[in-house]
Amino acid sequence: MAVAGIIAEYNPFHRGHAWQIQEVRRRLGADTAVVACMSGNFVQRGDFAILAKHPRAEAALAGGVDLVLELPTPWSAATAERFAQGGAAVLAAAGVVTHLVFGCETGSLPPLAAAAECLDSPAFREALGRYTGRGMTFAAARQAAARGLIGGAADCLSTPNNILAVEYLRALNAMGGPMEPLALPRLGAGHDSREEDGFLSAAAIRDRILSAGDWAAALPPATAAVLRREMDRGRAPADWRSCQRAILARLRRMEEAAFLPYDGGNEGLYHRFYAAVHTQAGVEDILFAAKTRRYPLSRLRRMLLLSYLGVPQAGQGQTPPYLRVLGVGARGRTLLRRMRESASLPVIVKPGRVRRLGGEVRRVFDQEAVCTELYALALPALETAESDYALSPAVAWGLGHV
């Protein structure tokens, strides 16, 4: 049986994900199991997930995923490279995933593979040095350097899902397998598009939810039911504006040098960011005051978020030290039984096990538990918050308890 792995914020709001799962089973077989390595409560664009990780995992199960594993915050709210590095490591460590599946604008593997090979070559590192320091963003400098080496194949480095796909391939190359890549075309509106044609983007749906617009018709029915239930309980939607003063209080207590671990490139951005924190009255004001052509908003959002959380992004080569189960369905339970023998990292189903494991597992899990508590400050009803140590996996309807 094939087992397809997906690394994503796993946004069950996006109907494109449902199509992706159907396409995986069309190509690999109807009995293919799907494992999602899903961001926790904070996502790669540097923001709070609008729905907490456990109900999001529940919606993913309803949408056809069989097993949901968590990507902890140091990887989920990091650059594309670190996001891919952590997600690929989680899926590989499970020991059961045969294919790494991803949606991308090209829908074709060859140009992505060429770009991945290029970015890891000595010739690229030499070429990149000729473009850095010209006031260009890193992304623009990288694409220009790659174009000089591989020509038109470098065009794939201009769109967000292609960039992630290239990073997945780089992560696979670094590991030497064991998963086979499968590229699928990404359908619907662009990553941050507000277009209304076809599948709405996650950004467009998010806007509707936060503005109390007509969001229900844009979601799969099962996802809409989960979101409405969480809203009724005061546990959604999460919105950074609900805890803006808490964010500002944290940032203004930090010394200038304390921002350096969150800089992301050690380029002196932290000086500019520190000045913005002490001269601006709101989160968006800080971001726009610190923004330049060289420093895009996505990077600044991640820097602000991770500074608030007190969690630097993962370093080069660092990978999560455990596999935490956020959700499990019928086929997922079969996979979990196999993972007792195949997994190369501890599998956390019941959080109480973490205290017995100790070490790096305990350190990262405790850090994630604090992040969950800070996430709760963005919920409509703070009293609904639950500790990570008290949260068991979501289970597909009708399957009982894990």
Q: What does this entry look like structurally?
A:
It is a single chain. With 402 residues, the chain is of the alpha/beta class. The chain has 17 helices and ten strands. It has helices at 15-28, 53-62, 73-76, 80-94, 109-119, 122-128, 138-150, 160-175, 202-210, 221-232, 244-252, 269-277, 283-290, 297-309, 330-342, 353-357, 359-375; strands at residues 3-8, 33-39, 42-43, 47-48, 67-71, 99-104, 180-185, 323-328, 347-348, 394-395. Strands 1, 2, 5, 6, 7, 8, 9 and 10 form an eight-stranded mixed β-sheet that branches. A two-stranded antiparallel sheet has the order 3-4. β3 and β4 form a beta hairpin. The protein starts with a strand and ends in a 7-residue tail after the last strand. The model is unreliable at 397-402 (pLDDT under 50).
Low-confidence stretches: 397-402
Q: Based on helices, strands and strand pairing, what is the structural class? A: alpha/beta
Order of helices and strands: EHEEEHEHHEHHHHEHHHHHHEHEHHE
Tertiary shape? globular
What is the helical fraction, as a range of percent? Answer: 40-55%
What's the average pLDDT? 90
Rounded to the nearest angstrom, the radius of gyration is 20 Å
The main β sheet shows up as: 8 strands, mixed
- Total DSSP E strands: 10
- Approximate strand percentage: 5-15%
Count every helix, treating DSSP H or I runs of 4 or more residues as helices.
17
